[in-house]
């Protein structure tokens, strides 16, 4: 929800209310004979009431008000005087929603049309992204926690090789380019204003966009809560990045990539493509699940904290795939980064 969208919905609602009041005044101002014979005015009045009921319903759902309250407002809307109840209630709801919005300077989201169409130009606005040296360390800690829970951290070959690779990664990590890509991806995933379930390379809605799947829940959350969800997705993407890197590169290859936009344009179309899916064999899939288990569990903890887990149940394949694919996205980011580096050197 944005300030502009909220203002647009409010103005549309007030316009409908103004129309029904104006028609009521016209009907009362007509003489008895004229009023009784003007069937056209009566029809227009009926139509205006129907439109006003729709606008009441529309604004109430836009504000994510309880369904029972929406039904009451719609039932009262056609009646003189009683329509003041939904009018006042919805305007109070608009005021409360506006106060919960972040300030204009902290509004970070892709343009809705970009998300809907799957365009790669979905822009992010607002403050600079978080320090990705710290984000990398957060993902490394998550991977180590996953290894501890599986017992793999007790294997000497894992421990020695892991620390060597992590040391090289810290030296060669293309921090700025990776930060640009992941932040743009996370902002687009969390956009709940964009219409449709697709966007960002999806060829179908089989794996829905996060902001579309949790649209109602995200609308009611405070910006700080959405920041917690952004952190959870960000860590999952980076653990997927590490899952490709750690077991496959004997020596960490520095990519030298500095153009984040170019990397993003190459990366996003591949995330949900059959080519990337076919490159992840059963062993790699097991590795992704294993190294990402702590990040996924943390994400689920955040969903439980904000009472969003009712939409994610064990039998819900769409939700499971959506969350798992954040690991796949990170895995694919490292693949594309290395391919771009190779083409640049060729």
Question: Could you explain the architecture of this structure?
Answer:
By secondary structure, the chain is mainly alpha-helical. It folds into two domains: 3-101; 105-345, no CATH class. It is built from 17 helices and no strands. The chain has helices spanning 3-29, 32-37, 39-62, 67-76, 84-100, 112-117, 132-150, 156-172, 175-189, 210-213, 215-220, 223-248, 260-271, 274-279, 282-291, 293-305, 317-345. The longest helix has 29 residues, at 317-345. 34% of the residues are buried. The model is unreliable at 31-37 and 103-127 (pLDDT under 50).
Number of helices: 17
Tell me, briefly, the overall form. Answer: elongated
Roughly how many Å is the radius of gyration? 26 Å
Distance between the termini: 46 Å
Average pLDDT taken over every residue: 77
Secondary structure tally: strands: 0
Structural class computed from helices and strand pairing = mainly alpha
Low-confidence parts? 31-37, 103-127
Q: Tell me the strand percentage band.
A: under 5%
H/E element sequence: HHHHHHHHHHHHHHHHH
Helix content: over 70%
Summarize the structure.
This protein is mainly α and 346 residues long. It has 17 helices and no strands.
SSE layout:
Blueprint: H1 3-29, H2 32-37, H3 39-62, H4 67-76, H5 84-100, H6 112-117, H7 132-150, H8 156-172, H9 175-189, H10 210-213, H11 215-220, H12 223-248, H13 260-271, H14 274-279, H15 282-291, H16 293-305, H17 317-345
Helix pairs in contact: 1-3, 1-5, 3-4, 7-12, 9-12, 9-13, 12-15, 12-16, 12-17, 13-17
